[in-house]
Amino acid sequence: MPGKTGERFVYQDDEIIEKPFNWAQLTRLFAYMKPYAKQMLPLVILMMILGTVTKLTVPFLTSMAIDKAIAPEVGPTSINMLYTITAIVLVLYIIQWLASTYRIKFTNIIGQRVIYDLRSDLFKHIQKLSFNFFDKRPAGSVLVRVTNDVNSLQELFTSGVVNLMIDCVQLVGIVVILLAINWKLGLAVILTVPIMFIISTKLRVRIRRAWQDVRMKNSRINSHLNESIQGIRVTQAYTQEQENIRFFDKMNFESKKSWDRASMLNQGFGPLIEITGGFGTLILFWFGAYLIQEGQLTIGLLVAFSSYVGNFWEPINRLGQMYNQLLVAMASSERIFEFIDEKPNIDDKPNAVPMPKIKGDIKLQDVVFEYEKGRQALKGINMDVIAGQTIALVGHTGSGKSTIINLLSRFYDISSGNITIDGYDIRDVQLETLRSQIGIVLQDTFIFSGTIRDNIRFGRLDATDEEIEAVSRAVNAHEFIEKLPGGYDTEVEERGNMLSMGQRQLLSFARALLADPRILILDEATASIDTETELKIQEALKVLLKGRTSFIVAHRLSTIRHADKIIVLDHGEIKEEGNHAELMQHQGTYYGLIEAQFRFV
Ligand SMILES: Nc1ncnc2c1ncn2[C@@H]1O[C@H](COP(=O)(O)OP(=O)(O)OP(=O)(O)O)[C@@H](O)[C@H]1O
């Protein structure tokens, strides 16, 4: 969903940074921890308890050192006691350090595994989603969910959850200790907590929002960058560089502005949050001094108390941050689950049968199809194709040619009517067994990064090198591949920019021939190529079409002429059908199309 006018590259769904707390969703998210919790959680809890107990023991030992060993009224023997206490404190610190190291190690393991599973689930699911899902969404938006949204959960799983537990345990421990040491002073300090908590949380919310704004502006820059690099050729061809630079500058400036604002808030509010903590300490010393004078508290205990109060603020502040983190996680997980819950609308029926080896008889009966409700792209198509025939689909742009080929592979389900292959309704068979027997060669051959060999092998992964070479020879691709610097092992960059259009087509023919499908669908490239390559392609096509039922969205006269049947489409309807000679004689739509298209050839 694009953003407001004038805000290119912005998709509103991805802009929502926080969502209210949702318990059901949190439970679902935490279910990802389950497989590892059993194994790791006891260890984490053990480390956590060890760490907390040692941490909370140190201030108590300090108070003992002051009251029993340092205070002027105790005797000289006390020096030994001081040594003993120091030694114990040292051991406690070592235990604490070890406990925290291992705790972090274990929680990282849990966190990384959860993120791995989540990302992998999401990716697997996206692979299965149907064409109409991608029709609705820009690729950038899908990308953001697999990267940014998953990443933003990372912190929650690696440290957030465990810190939450530690903080709760620590807080309870400290409250108990404070009340046990001196309940009056304890109560006075604890009562200040809600006020401090509210003030610091309020300030924190503003800082957080400001940083989120920075993140959002940066992610806009990223998507703009992505799109401008992908489209750099078009930009330069239309000399739109200045416009692009102006647009980028605006975004860049916005990002800088929001960063300035966030960092100012941070500088201003950061110390203020610290000061709110200081307020509690003030009460502590004021009331503590009074209790010491009254003989109700020792100096050592007051020092211990102040140390506990210091430890008290840390978890409270962190809990506030944790809550923020949860709200962000809510938004990200909602987006992730929205994708995971998206059912591929093209899926096997529960009683789907495997499609037997296809012969290639295809029938379309009263096929109606609409991409969007109320707009028919096909308005009642009837077609009867005998195995082995080559069918050329011709017609004006937008007449429905690509739509027919999309329906044959069941990339979309028809709105009414039916399509059968060898008498099987394509909706009743298992999708994989259907698609694996249909080969598709698209206009814009997609070349993946990897070698030429890898790209041909995409047609059938278990093919041997010999088979790859054989199909390449058969479609006239061997000759140019041989001449490449590394032959079949030449690395082609993503999208195959180093190959010419004609070479890319031959490569895609080789890929299709290797798959050896019974039904071949070919969206013929419209790009004009030199006569020599054109001839090679024509020869290759003959090899490719032999013995298969083929549908060609045809643009070349020679291809159309050789077809067994030409189907002329117009606004989603079949206008005429027959072979070239018949249709030319008829002097109807086809005749007009050919006249217009090839007048200058
Ligand atoms: N993914 C889509 N979502 C919505 N409408 C679509 C989609 N794809 C095609 N259409 C519409 O369906 C109609 C038929 O389009 P189709 O792509 O089948 O035409 P075509 O004959 O293959 O055209 P071309 O020769 O330009 O490729 C057009 O009106 C088009 O706007």
TrEMBL record:
Where would you say this protein principally sits, based on its record? membrane
**Any one GO molecular function term:** ATP binding
Q: Which UniProt keywords apply?
A: ATP-binding, Membrane, Nucleotide-binding, Transmembrane, Transmembrane helix
**Membrane-crossing residue ranges in chain numbering:** 40-61, 81-99, 161-181, 187-205, 269-289
- ABC transporter domain location: 362-596
Q: Give the matching SUPFAM superfamilies.
A: ABC transporter transmembrane region, P-loop containing nucleoside triphosphate hydrolases
Does the entry feature the keyword Electron transport, yes or no?
A: no
- PANTHER family recorded: ATP-BINDING CASSETTE SUB-FAMILY B MEMBER 10, MITOCHONDRIAL (PTHR43394:SF1), ATP-DEPENDENT PERMEASE MDL1, MITOCHONDRIAL (PTHR43394)
InterPro entries assigned: AAA+_ATPase (IPR003593), ABC1_TM_dom (IPR011527), ABC1_TM_sf (IPR036640), ABC_transporter-like_ATP-bd (IPR003439), P-loop_NTPase (IPR027417), Type_1_exporter (IPR039421)
UniProt topology in membrane: Multi-pass membrane protein
| Species of origin | Paenibacillus dokdonensis
Which compartments is it annotated to reside in? Cell membrane
Q: What is the lineage of its organism?
A: Bacteria, Bacillati, Bacillota, Bacilli, Bacillales
* Name of the protein in its database record: ABC transporter ATP-binding protein
- Identify the residues that the record assigns to the ABC transmembrane type-1 domain, covering every copy: 43-326
